[in-house]
Design goal:
single chain; 492 residues; mainly alpha; Glutamyl-tRNA Synthetase, domain 3; Arc Repressor Mutant, subunit A; three-stranded antiparallel sheet; two-stranded parallel ribbon; elongated
Length: 492
Amino acid sequence: MANATPVRVRFCPSPTGNPHVGLVRTALFNWAFARHHQGTLVFRIEDTDAARDSEESYNQLLDSMRWLGFDWDEGPEVGGPHAPYRQSQRMDLYKDVADKLLAAGHAYHCYCTTEELDARRDAARKAGKPSGYDGTCRTLTDEQKAAYEAEGRSSIVRFRMPDETITFTDLVRGELTFTPENVPDYGIVRANGAPLYTLVNPVDDALMEITHVLRGEDLLSSTPRQIALYKALIELGFAKEIPAFGHLPYVMGEGNKKLSKRDPQASLNLYRERGFLPEGLLNYLALLGWSFSADQDIFSVAELVEKFDIADVNANPARFDLKKAEAINADHIRQLDTKSFIAACEPWLRAPHANWAPEDFDEAAWQAIAPHAQTRVTVLSDITANVDFLFRKEPVEDEASWTKAMKGDPAALLTAARAKLLDADWTSPESLKNAVLAAGEEHGLKLGKAQAPVRVAVTGRTVGLPLFESLEILGKERTVQRIDAALAKLAG
């Protein structure tokens, strides 16, 4: 991007509830844009809604950003020349701006009640006209204001939109035009004096010298209002220039609906708890509206930064596909070196995830099975069920798996497999495979059918890691003991 002004972007979430994947996608695109252009990422907290904001959510935001690997150049825990970076600590500043907007005639007091506004909106809709604010209080005289106040009415502050068409070039959608009748005057300060998002967000962007605003499509309709406000802020000396805007496509969930914070699959915590790698999740989220290349879906964060261009973002809605997210994460797991994979799995090998006694964990067995597990797991939390047969005194009891595997004459098959396994070479998975294959052939079964009851007898499940490598690591004695236990259960 040829731009003499250094790039400055911001990520400005509200600390309400758990972070969601749409929010993370916005953070990712801002972060990648800043890093691609060797620019500055400002991390700002929009916490002016005391009823919904919480310190717990604030701490979760910071923790999530760190887990994802994002760094920021200005903001909480970092500081910077435009501190403070929490809006709740900037209230005097917003009041000063609002007062100056009023004094310059860019804003005015509006005394309309909610009931009056609703009635006029209904009437406008029925008449087929735009239903935004109709400007009733735009030209009140001092006497009229005094009369309203004598009635006990309170007032909000509205910004006075200019009577002109507003056109701007969106970085994602191209040139957009908004006519005056579709962008009415809007509130910037509540009746209790609390500033609204419509004021504090552009004011902070102006004072923090943000050059590019990359945000969700749901905020597109507010852009002409902010551009008008920017022009007023420039006139009053609070801003230098209007930033470039780019509106990111919606992320769609089930039923062709916009993915909302209430959707279970929207919660970032879900992916952390399931054991997504940050690199895998970010790789997938980058594909929600952007593509690395026509023939490559798997890439590193460094490759994303090198190639990211906001002009390549697609304006069409992007569908969140959990299966694809899992597949991409699995690819990133397989790209880890074994040592990193072992370290990444560590949280899922202890309480509360582990279903075995801590003293029964065998580090040598874990080190031996890890390379086989790495090729099979989709998310790190899969590891627990895949390796628990090594550390439990007895395999898990899964009746569905037992019923599925123990068909025909499982006792005869297990008896034959036991005998042949006793004579096998337990340093060779191939020898163990041949033993079970031979037992199956005696009963007219191919390997797939023959190994199913052996797998369930030994691991408790019908699916898992490569069976014969698993048997080798479990060992001859424990394997035979578990086959004996299965035979006893079959004998009933």
